C-alpha cells in the first residue's frame, strides 16, 4: 500500500490512508446510514462518504509540500463537506493530528502517537464527550490507549496500528448497549440502546484503514 | 450597529426564519445579517469554514460593534465554535454565540439590534426570548436544577452579570446574601440563573444561591417583592458591577497596602517559633462521634439546643474572623465571614428543622442537613466551588462539636499537633503559644494552610504518612529543614533535638536582637545582607527584619496576579514604594523573568519543549520589546533621586546585553531624559554558565553582577530545578558550582561587586563559605536575613577564605557538607 521505509510513514502513506478510508466509507455508506437512521438523522454514511471522497481527490489535484500541510487540507475539506457534527469533529481530528507532524517528512511511532493523541484531544475538546456517551470517542479512546501501550512496549509502527485498530473495533462494539448522551441520538434517550453508534463505527473504519496503509 | 449571523442545517430554514424576523422591523432597517446554512441550497449540514467567513463579513459590516451568532442544533454549535478558532482572535473576541432557540432568539435579537443596543444587551434579550412562551404555557424551563423556590408574582427584577473568574462561588454568593439580608424579611428576593436555567432560589440561602452554578459570563435575574424592592435591586446591581466584590485585578500591590506581618507579631499566640523545628507531646484533634446515636427530646427542646449552638458558633467565628483580620490580614479573615454566612443559611436551618420535627436529635438533624448542602456543592461543575464543600463541612463540624461537647480545635493542649491535612481555617485559628509545630500525614509543603502556618512562623513538617499514627501524648520531634522526624525518641535522640532547638532559639534571639546592626565579620568587613522581595508587604517585612535593601525584586512575582500588563504609571508607583520602604538602602529591580516555571498572564509565550532552556528572561523580548520598554521606562521614572539598581536576567552574550542597554536608552528618552538617571546602577544576573565563564568581558562597564544560584546550579548540573527526582544532581554544594562562583569573583572587572541571590544565600551554614569564595553581598528571603547576618558575625574573612579553599578541594557535595558542619560547630563554639 503506502510507501514505508524504515518503519515510518511518509506523505504518500498518508494519502493512501485517506484513499483507503474513502473506499471503505463508500463500501459501508449504506450500513452507516442504516445505523444512523436507527438513532439519528440517517445521513452519516452519505455525509462521510461525500467528505472523504472529496479528500481522496486532493492528492491528484495538488502538490503538498509536507504531511502536515496535507492533513490540514484534509481537515478543512472535511469541515466544509461533511455537513453533520462529524464535519467539525473529524476536521478537528486531522487539523490537530497535523500539529505534531509539522517538522517531519517521515512519521515514526513517536510522531504518530503524538499526532493521534493531539487529534483525539481535539475531538474531546470539540465534542466535550466522555467515554460511555455513545460517540466516536468510545472508539478513539481505547484505540489511542492501545497505540500508546504498544509504542511504549517498543513495537514497530505496524504493530502499534494493528493494536490500535483492534481496540477501535472493541470500542465501537462497546457502544451497542449504551444510552446516548451526546448528539442527535441523545434525544432518543433509552431507545438509543441496542444500536451501534454510527460515529464510533466510522471511526473504527478510519483506524482500520490506517493499519492497512500507514505501515 | 452589531451584526447577526444565522447558522442552521438548512439554507431555506435560515432564510425563512430571517424573513419572519424581518417582519418586525421596517423595510431596510435593522442590522446586517449573514447566513451560513446548509452545504448548498439542498444539502443539509453546516460548514465551519463558511461560518467563519460569514462571521468575518458580519464583523466588517458591524464596524467592530460585535457579532451575535444564532444557531439551530447539533453540528451548528460545533461548527460555530470551530469557526471561532479559525478566525483571527481579534475578530473572534467580538463574537458571541447565543444559546437561544433559533426562531425566538433571532426575532428578539433583530429587534433589539435594530434599536441600536450593544452586543451584551442583544445577547441577553435573545436568551430571554424563550421566557414569554414558557410563561404562557405555564411550564418551567426544563434545564433548571438545585433547590427551587416559586417565582414572585408582580416582582420587580434586575439582571446581574457574573464577571468574576470563579463565577459566583461561596464568598461572592455570601456577599449577595448579606446584601439581601439587610432588607429581609419584609422584602423578599429570589434569584435564577438565566444562562443555565437553574433556579429560582431564595436569595437568603447561600447554599441555594451557590447551587445556581453561576459561572463567569452567566447572567442572573434577581426578582424582588416588598416595600424596598427597588432599593434592594439597586444594591444588587451595584454589587454585580463590583464583580460581587471579587474582581481579582489588581489585587496587591499598589503601594498603600498595609498587611500585618504575623511571623513577628507581638500579639500572643500569633507568631510561631520560627525555628522550623519542634519537640513536644503529640496533640490530636478530637474526632466528632457519629451523632445518630444521640437520643432526641421533644422537637422544640432540640430546636432550642440547635439555635443556641449556632448562636455560640457564630460568636466564635466572628471573634476568630476579627482576630485573623487584625493579625493575619483581611484575606484570611474572610474564611470565617464566609463560614458565618453559611451558619445563617435558611436552607440548612429549614432542613434541620424538618428533620427535628420528624424526631431527629439536634445533632443528627444538623449533621444530615450539612451533609446535604456539602454534597450539593460537590456536584457543582466548577472545581473551585466544589472545594467550598470543605467550608460547609468545617462550619458544620463546629456546631456539632458544641452540641456534643467536643473540644474546638483552637483550644488545644500544648505540643505538636498531628493532623491528616492542615486546612486554612485551622492554620489560621491555631494558637501558636500552645501549638509548637504541626505534622501532617498527607499534603505537600505548598498547600494553602501550610503556607499560612509558614507565614506565621509555625514549624510544619508535611506528608509523613502513617509514621504520625501515634496516640496522644507520644513525644514527637522534627526538623523541617532536614526533614527528620523522630517518634517517641529515646532519651539521647530527644536530648539532641532539644539541644538543637535551643541552639536555634538562642541564635534566633541574638539574630533578631542585632537585626538592625550591620553584619561585620570579626575582622570588621561589612557584608550587606539584602532581601528578595515579591511585594510591597514583603519589602516592609524585610526592612523590619534589618535587610540592607533588596538585592532582588522579582517583578514577575509582584505582578503575578495581574491579567493585564501594569501600565508605566502603575509600575512606577510600585517601584517608588519599594525604594521608599528600604530607604536609605538600595533596591534592585529585576526586569521581567517570565518563562521557565513562571508564566505571566500578560506575556504571551510559545509552548516550548524545554522552557528552562527556552526564551526566558531578556530573551523573551528580542522580537517584541514593548513590555520590557514599559518596565524600563517605569524604572527610569522611579529612579530619579532614589538609590536604585536595575538587573537584567538570563543575559548570556554581549548581544543580549547590548539589546538590554539599547532598550534602557530608549526607555530613558521616553521618560523625557537624555540618558538613564545618574543614580541608577545597572547589572546582570549570572545564571548561564556561558556568562559566568566570560564574566570578565561581559561585565565591563557594568555597576554590579548578581549570581542567581538556583538557575546556575540547574544549568551547571543539567538538572531541572523543581524535579525532586533530580535532587542528587541539583545540589548547590557541588564543587563544580562553588568553583564557578569563585571564577566569577576572581574574573569580574575591578570594582564590580558580586552579589548572590537564591537559596544558597538563605542558608546560614553557607554564608561564610560564600564570602570566602569572594561574594560581596547576599540576598535572601526576608525571614532569613537576621540569621545570615548573625552567622557572618561569627568569623573573619580570612577564616571564611580558608573554608572556601577546603571546600573547593573537596571531592563532592557530601564532603563539603561535612566540612560545613565541622566549621559551624567550631564557629558557634568559638
UniProtKB/TrEMBL annotation, chain A:
Residues 12-212 form the DhaL domain. SMART domains: Dak2 (SM01120). GO terms for molecular function: kinase activity. Keywords: Kinase, Transferase. Pfam families: Dak2. Gene3D superfamilies: 1.25.40.340. This is Dihydroxyacetone kinase subunit L. It comes from Ornithinimicrobium pekingense.
From TrEMBL, chain B:
Residues 130-154 are annotated as: Disordered. The keyword Transport applies. The keyword Ribosomal protein does not apply. It comes from Ornithinimicrobium pekingense. Residues 155-247 form the HPr domain. Belongs to the PEP-utilizing enzyme family. This is Phosphocarrier protein HPr. It is an enzyme of class 2 (transferase). Keywords: Cytoplasm, Kinase, Magnesium, Metal-binding, Phosphotransferase system, Sugar transport, Transferase, Transport. Its main location: cytoplasm. CDD domains: PTS-HPr_like. Transmembrane segments: none annotated. SUPFAM superfamilies: Enzyme I of the PEP:sugar phosphotransferase system HPr-binding (sub)domain (SSF47831), HPr-like (SSF55594), Phosphoenolpyruvate/pyruvate domain (SSF51621), Phosphohistidine domain (SSF52009), PTS system fructose IIA component-like (SSF53062). Component of the dihydroxyacetone kinase complex, which is responsible for the phosphoenolpyruvate (PEP)-dependent phosphorylation of dihydroxyacetone. DhaM serves as the phosphoryl donor. Is phosphorylated by phosphoenolpyruvate in an EI- and HPr-dependent reaction, and a phosphorelay system on histidine residues finally leads to phosphoryl transfer to DhaL and dihydroxyacetone. General (non sugar-specific) component of the phosphoenolpyruvate-dependent sugar phosphotransferase system (sugar PTS). This major carbohydrate active-transport system catalyzes the phosphorylation of incoming sugar substrates concomitantly with their translocation across the cell membrane. The phosphoryl group from phosphoenolpyruvate (PEP) is transferred to the phosphoryl carrier protein HPr by enzyme I. Phospho-HPr then transfers it to the PTS EIIA domain. InterPro entries: DhaM_N, HPr-like, HPr-like_sf, PEP-util_enz_mobile_dom, PEP-utilizing_PTS_enzyme, PEP_util_C, PEP_util_CS, Phosphohistidine_dom_sf. Homodimer. The dihydroxyacetone kinase complex is composed of a homodimer of DhaM, a homodimer of DhaK and the subunit DhaL. It catalyses: dihydroxyacetone + phosphoenolpyruvate = dihydroxyacetone phosphate + pyruvate; L-histidyl-[protein] + phosphoenolpyruvate = N(pros)-phospho-L-histidyl-[protein] + pyruvate. Its EC number is 2.7.1.121, 2.7.3.9. Its cofactor is Mg(2+). Residues 130-139 have a biased composition (Basic and acidic residues). PANTHER family: PHOSPHOENOLPYRUVATE-PROTEIN PHOSPHOTRANSFERASE. It is found in: Cytoplasm.
Amino acid at each position: 500500500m503506502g510507501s514505508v521505509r524504515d518503519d515510518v510513514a511518509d506523505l504518500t502513506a498518508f494519502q493512501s490512508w485517506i484513499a483507503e478510508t474513502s473506499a471503505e466509507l463508500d463500501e459501508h455508506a449504506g450500513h452507516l446510514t442504516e445505523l444512523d437512521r436507527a438513532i439519528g438523522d440517517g445521513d452519516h454514511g452519505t455525509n462521510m462518504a461525500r467528505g472523504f471522497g472529496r479528500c481522496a481527490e486532493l492528492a491528484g489535484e495538488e502538490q503538498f509540500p509536507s504531511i502536515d500541510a496535507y492533513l490540514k487540507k484534509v481537515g478543512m475539506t472535511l469541515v466544509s463537506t461533511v455537513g453533520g457534527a462529524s464535519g467539525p469533529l473529524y476536521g478537528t481530528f486531522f487539523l490537530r493530528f497535523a500539529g505534531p507532524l509539522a517538522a517531519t517528512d517521515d512519521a515514526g511511532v513517536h510522531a504518530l502517537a503524538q499526532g493521534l493523541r493531539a487529534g483525539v484531544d481535539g475531538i474531546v475538546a470539540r465534542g466535550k464527550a466522555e467515554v460511555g456517551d455513545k460517540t466516536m470517542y468510545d472508539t478513539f479512546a481505547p484505540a489511542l490507549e492501545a497505540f500508546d501501550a504498544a509504542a511504549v512496549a517498543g513495537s514497530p509502527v505496524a504493530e502499534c496500528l494493528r493494536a490500535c485498530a483492534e481496540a477501535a473495533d472493541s470500542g465501537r462494539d462497546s457502544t451497542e448497549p449504551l444510552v446516548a448522551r451526546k448528539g442527535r441520538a441523545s434525544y432518543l434517550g433509552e431507545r438509543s440502546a441496542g444500536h451501534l453508534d454510527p460515529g464510533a463505527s466510522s471511526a473504527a473504519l478510519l483506524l482500520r484503514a490506517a493499519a492497512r496503509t500507514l505501515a | 450597529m452589531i451584526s447577526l449571523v444565522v447558522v442552521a442545517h438548512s439554507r431555506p430554514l435560515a432564510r425563512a426564519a430571517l424573513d419572519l424576523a424581518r417582519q418586525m422591523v421596517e423595510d431596510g432597517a435593522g442590522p446586517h445579517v449573514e447566513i451560513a446554512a446548509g452545504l448548498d441550497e439542498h444539502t443539509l449540514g453546516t460548514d465551519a469554514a463558511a461560518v467563519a467567513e460569514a462571521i468575518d463579513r458580519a464583523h466588517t459590516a458591524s464596524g467592530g460593534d460585535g457579532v451575535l451568532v444564532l444557531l439551530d442544533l447539533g453540528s451548528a454549535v460545533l461548527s460555530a465554535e470551530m469557526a471561532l478558532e479559525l478566525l483571527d482572535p481579534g475578530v473572534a473576541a467580538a463574537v458571541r454565540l447565543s444559546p437561544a432557540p433559533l426562531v425566538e432568539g433571532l426575532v428578539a435579537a433583530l429587534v433589539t439590534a435594530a434599536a441600536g443596543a450593544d452586543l451584551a444587551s442583544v445577547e441577553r434579550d435573545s436568551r430571554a426570548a424563550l421566557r414569554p412562551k414558557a410563561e404562557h404555557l405555564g411550564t418551567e424551563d426544563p434545564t433548571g436544577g438545585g433547590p427551587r423556590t416559586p417565582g414572585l408574582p408582580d416582582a420587580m427584577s434586575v439582571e446581574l452579570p457574573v464577571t468574576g473568574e470563579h463565577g459566583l462561588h461561596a464568598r461572592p454568593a455570601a456577599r449577595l446574601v448579606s446584601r439581601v439580608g439587610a432588607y429581609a424579611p419584609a422584602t423578599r428576593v429570589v434569584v435564577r440563573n438565566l444562562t443555565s436555567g437553574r433556579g429560582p432560589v431564595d436569595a437568603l440561602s447561600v447554599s441555594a444561591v451557590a447551587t445556581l452554578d453561576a459561572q463567569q459570563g452567566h447572567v442572573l435575574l434577581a426578582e424582588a417583592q416588598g416595600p424596598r424592592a427597588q432599593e434592594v435591586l439597586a444594591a444588587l446591581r451595584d454589587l454585580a458591577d463590583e464583580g460581587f466584590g471579587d474582581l481579582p485585578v489588581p489585587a496587591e500591590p499598589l503601594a498603600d497596602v498595609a498587611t500585618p506581618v504575623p511571623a513577628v507579631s507581638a500579639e500572643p499566640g500569633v507568631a510561631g517559633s520560627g525555628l522550623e523545628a519542634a519537640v513536644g507531646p503529640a496533640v490530636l484533634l478530637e474526632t466528632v462521634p457519629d451523632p445518630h446515636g444521640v437520643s432526641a427530646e421533644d422537637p422544640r427542646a432540640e430546636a432550642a439546643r440547635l439555635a443556641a449552638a449556632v448562636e455560640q458558633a457564630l460568636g466564635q467565628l466572628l471573634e476568630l474572623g476579627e482576630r485573623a483580620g487584625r493579625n493575619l490580614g483581611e484575606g484570611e479573615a474572610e474564611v470565617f465571614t464566609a463560614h458565618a454566612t453559611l451558619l445563617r443559611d435558611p436552607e440548612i436551618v429549614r432542613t434541620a428543622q424538618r428533620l427535628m420535627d420528624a424526631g431527629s436529635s439536634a445533632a443528627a438533624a444538623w449533621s444530615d442537613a450539612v451533609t446535604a448542602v456539602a454534597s450539593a456543592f460537590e456536584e457543582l461543575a466548577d472545581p473551585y466551588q466544589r472545594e467550598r464543600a470543605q467550608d460547609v463541612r468545617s462550619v458544620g463540624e463546629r456546631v456539632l462539636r458544641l452540641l456534643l461537647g467536643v473540644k474546638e480545635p483552637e483550644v488545644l493542649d500544648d505540643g505538636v499537633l498531628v493532623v491528616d491535612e492542615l486546612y486554612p481555617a485551622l492554620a489560621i485559628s491555631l494558637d501558636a503559644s500552645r501549638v509548637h509545630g504541626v505534622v501532617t500525614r498527607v499534603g505537600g509543603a505548598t498547600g494553602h494552610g501550610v503556607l499560612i502556618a509558614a507565614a506565621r512562623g509555625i514549624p510544619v513538617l508535611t506528608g509523613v504518612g502513617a509514621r504520625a499514627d501515634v496516640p496522644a501524648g507520644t513525644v514527637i520531634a522534627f526538623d523541617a529543614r532536614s526533614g527528620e522526624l523522630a517518634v517517641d525518641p529515646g532519651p539521647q535522640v530527644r536530648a539532641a533535638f532539644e539541644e538543637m532547638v535551643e541552639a536555634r532559639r538562642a541564635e534566633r534571639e541574638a539574630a533578631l536582637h542585632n537585626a538592625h546592626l550591620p553584619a561585620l565579620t570579626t575582622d570588621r568587613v561589612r557584608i550587606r545582607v539584602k532581601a528578595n522581595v515579591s511585594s510591597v508587604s514583603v519589602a516592609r517585612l524585610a526592612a523590619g527584619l534589618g535587610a540592607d535593601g533588596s538585592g532582588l525584586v522579582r517583578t514577575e512575582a509582584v505582578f503575578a496576579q495581574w491579567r493585564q500588563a501594569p501600565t508605566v504609571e502603575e509600575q512606577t508607583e510600585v517601584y517608588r514604594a519599594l525604594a521608599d520602604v528600604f530607604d536609605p538602602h538600595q533596591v534592585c529591580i529585576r526586569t521581567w523573568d517570565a518563562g521557565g516555571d513562571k508564566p505571566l498572564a500578560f506575556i504571551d509565550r510559545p509552548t516550548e519543549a524545554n522552557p528552562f532552556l527556552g526564551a526566558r528572561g531578556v530573551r523573551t523580548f528580542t522580537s517584541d520589546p514593548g513590555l520590557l520598554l514599559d518596565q524600563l521606562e517605569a524604572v527610569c521614572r522611579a529612579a530619579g533621586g532614589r538609590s536604585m539598581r536595575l538587573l537584567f536576567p538570563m543575559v548570556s552574550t554581549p548581544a543580549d546585553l547590548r539589546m538590554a542597554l539599547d532598550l534602557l536608552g530608549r526607555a530613558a528618552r521616553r521618560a523625557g531624559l537624555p540618558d538613564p538617571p545618574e543614580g541608577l546602577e545597572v547589572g546582570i544576573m549570572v545564571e548561564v554558565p556561558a556568562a559566568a565563564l566570560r564574566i570578565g568581558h561581559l561585565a565591563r562597564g557594568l555597576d554590579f553582577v548578581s549570581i542567581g544560584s538556583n538557575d546556575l546550579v540547574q544549568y551547571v548540573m543539567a538538572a531541572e530545578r523543581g524535579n525532586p527526582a533530580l535532587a542528587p544532581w541539583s545540589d548547590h554544594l557541588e564543587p563544580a558550582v562553588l568553583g564557578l562562583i569563585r571564577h566569577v569573583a576572581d574574573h569580574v572587572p575591578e570594582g564590580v561587586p558580586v552579589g548572590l541571590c537564591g537559596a544558597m544565600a538563605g542558608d546560614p551554614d553557607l554564608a561564610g563559605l560564600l564570602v570566602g569564595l569572594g561574594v560581596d553581598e547576599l540576598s535572601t528571603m526576608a525571614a532569613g536575613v537576621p540569621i545570615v547576618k548573625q552567622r557572618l558575625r561569627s568569623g573573619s574573612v580570612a577564616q571564611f577564605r580558608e573554608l572556601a579553599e577546603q571546600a573547593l578541594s573537596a571531592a563532592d557535595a557530601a564532603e563539603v557538607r561535612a566540612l560545613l558542619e565541622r566549621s559551624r560547630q567550631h564557629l558557634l563554639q568559638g
